Amino acid sequence: MIIELGHFALILAFVLALVQCVVPVWGAVSGDRRLMAVAPPVAGMQFLLVGIAFAALSHAYVTSDFSVLNVVENSHSAKPDLYKITGVWGNHEGSLLLWVLILALFGALVAAFGRNIPADLRAATLGVQGWVTAAFLLFMLATSNPFLRVSPAPMEGNDLNPILQDVGLAIHPPLLYIGYVGFSIVFSFAIAALLLGRVDAAWARWVRPWTLLAWMFLTLGIAMGSYWAYYELGWGGYWFWDPVENASFMPWLAGTALLHSAIVMEKRGALKVWTVLLAILTFSLSLLGTFLVRSGVLTSVHAFATDPLRGTFILGILVAFIGGSLALYAWRAPLLKQGGLFAPVSREGALVLNNLLLTVAAVSVLVGTLYPLALEALTDEKISVGPPFFNLTFGPLMVPLLIAMPFGPLLAWKRGDLAAVSQRLYAVLGLALAATLVTAWAQGTEKILAALGVGLAAWVICGAVAEILSRARFRDVGLSTGLSRLYGLPGSAWGTALGHAGIGITLLGIVAVSAFEEEKVLTIRPGESVEIGDYRLAFGGLARRTGPNYIDDVGHFDIYRGGAKVAEADPAKRLYTARRMPTTEAGIVTFGLSQIYVSIGEVHADGGADIRLYHKPLVTLIWLGCLVMGGGAVVSLFDRRLRVGAPKPARRQLAAAE
Amino acid sequence: MKRDSKMTRKQRRLTMIAAAGTVLAVAVGLILFALNDQIVFFQSPSDIVAKTIPDGQRIRLGGLVAEDSVTRGENAEVRFTVTDTVESVNVVYVGLLPDLFREGQGVVTEGVMKPDGLFYADNVLAKHDENYMPKEVADALKGKGVWQGKE
């Protein structure tokens, strides 16, 4: 009964989405306030209905209702409760429901908190959001219905893919989807602005918090996915340039560019046409990612089992939305007035450089991701484009961006003075050079590239600190006034500094791991020990352990440093009994910012085991840097200036919507 | 910057276009160079036997792991045979095999052919799904099926 209720709610949501597609947009274009007023309650109701559908499916998972096909295929009664819930989105149908839920959530958020947005812009935005929602609801109902029953109901389910039975599944997809799908509302804003033929600085101010929100979740989602792959897959890698990773990384690059161009538009009224295009492109890349993951055209760790109809359907959605929005753009963009002149050397100029490099980098990732598909379609030749391609194309494009990064925030708007800014960065340059020299001295000159990488990271981090300090003007006003100025700085200034510092921190981690990591692969027998870095690992042998739905062969290692025992690691080979599927559970021990990583392979008859062992210096900085970036976004979201005319609790409106 | 203040609107625009053009040209150059140099072709065992692949060129070799072909040596060295049911190639790999590596199952390995006729893999991929057959392998085997059918 509950399942049918969920199914019915989903159909009702689709019908409401059709209303939302037409009525508010018509109202906005014709200036009819009554029609525009339809949008907020409909958007709210739609979120409620998709929420009911989601709750119904979750209920079926938690109670292990094996009369539902989706539950049979992806759950098991012995599965721990947490994974029963996260299993809801651990499959194609359920994750699509989460996708649509977040789509509806963003519509509802704009309906609830977008009080200061002009009525016609808000109505048109919600209308466009309705188009996207309607398309995906139709896709679900037609090809990917999670509420299908199976009769007779089997006694037991097939269990969830063991690789997904991890707390990572509880965090990674929701964060990633909020980011990925969150860009839909920015897209809707852009299309609405084109429909109404009006894009101004105020538009940028309304759009920026939503971009920031989506960007923050996408950043955290990608970082979480990276750490999950690192500890779960047992290969010790944190980024594989896998097509599906690229699919989430391209919207991130475009979204980062959008975040910066929206600043120029808000502050100076320039780059309007470009910003609107970026808003369209960012969500188009999100849609492209969805297509790549769900159509089965790629070989990837993420690809869902698919049927051809789904691929064709999503391709249709993709073509309609990207083609339609670009056509609308080509038609309406010439109407937008250009404004705000600026010299090439200026804050605007720096932000344009940022946009240029980020979008070109996104294009290089796009080429690397799609080239194998294109080549196979055209010549039948099968190739793989791996990390070497991306290191060679993406890497060199990031270097000038990172070098320019500390200059940007110090340059004045309109016309900047490069010489004066360079003077203010002498100390930062000195620190970066010192970091380079110390690294080269400590690690030997053959790792000169790594030393330069460390220097670049130091340049970016110290540059972010210098920017904040220069805003406090300690030298002019003294310590106490400086501190109070520091406290009084707007959130967006702190946001910029934290965002930029985060990039530097992540870079430092990447450089350290790429250049200074140690790896050993060997067969080890009980009683033997192996040295890596400053550590010695003594193998104590294997033991069997039984979990709720798996059996572990656990290897025990005592870790010594300078003769004293400092830690233990227990990597395991795990066998999930329902699917007879083995997984590797790495043993990871963190020392400060560095980690020791052990995984077990083949187990020998004499009690020995093949192991892969890593010492990964500063590896945790890769993800800590992303957290700092996310923190920057949070601080920025709380900026008073952004709140003026942007998300603001609107109790009366909400009451009216209910 | 006095020079800037004298720049006309047109000069400013030209500066922007020149900067964008430079970045684009560099990027296109990098992409073309990398596509020429850094991509790895997928080959089946029959391809390897038929063509001569230059020593040291990285390739991806895909097929089925032949039954009873896996032997393990000291220090995590593994030898196995990859076959497409027509030809087969012997592979040497040092490292941990993926969890789903099994005899009779599809596999993709990446590495180089050496003059001794062995394929030295430094990467072995099998997917995270027990029913998985790498797409390239499935296509290659289908190709073989068609070819045998015509004989």
Write the layout of secondary structure elements.
The complex is a heterodimer of chains A (658) and B (151).
Chain A: H1 2-30, H2 33-36, H3 39-62, H4 69-74, H5 81-86, H6 92-113, H7 119-143, H8 168-196, H9 201-232, H10 243-268, H11 272-294, H12 308-332, H13 347-379, E1 383-385, H14 387-404, H15 418-424, H16 426-443, H17 448-472, H18 474-477, H19 479-488, H20 491-516, E2 518-524, E3 529-532, E4 535-546, E5 550-561, E6 564-569, E7 572-576, E8 581-585, E9 587-591, E10 594-603, E11 609-616, H21 621-637, H22 640-643, H23 651-657
Antiparallel strand pairs in A: 2-11, 3-4, 4-5, 5-6, 5-7, 7-8, 9-10, 10-11
Chain B: H1 2-6, H2 9-37, E1 39-43, H3 45-50, E2 59-65, E3 71-72, E4 77-83, E5 88-94, E6 106-113, E7 119-125, H4 135-150
Parallel strand pairs in B: 1-2, 5-7
Antiparallel strand pairs in B: 2-4, 2-6, 3-4, 4-5, 6-7
How would you characterize this protein structure?
The complex is a heterodimer of chains A (658) and B (151). Helices cover 64% and strands 12% of the residues of chain A. Chain A is built from 23 helices and eleven strands. The two termini of chain A are 26 Å apart. Chain B is built from four helices and seven strands; from the N terminus they run ααβαββββββα. Chain B has helices spanning 2-6, 9-37, 45-50, 135-150; strands at 39-43, 59-65, 71-72, 77-83, 88-94, 106-113, 119-125. Chain B is elongated. At the A-B interface, α13, β1, α14, β2 and β8 of A face α2, β1 and α4 of B.
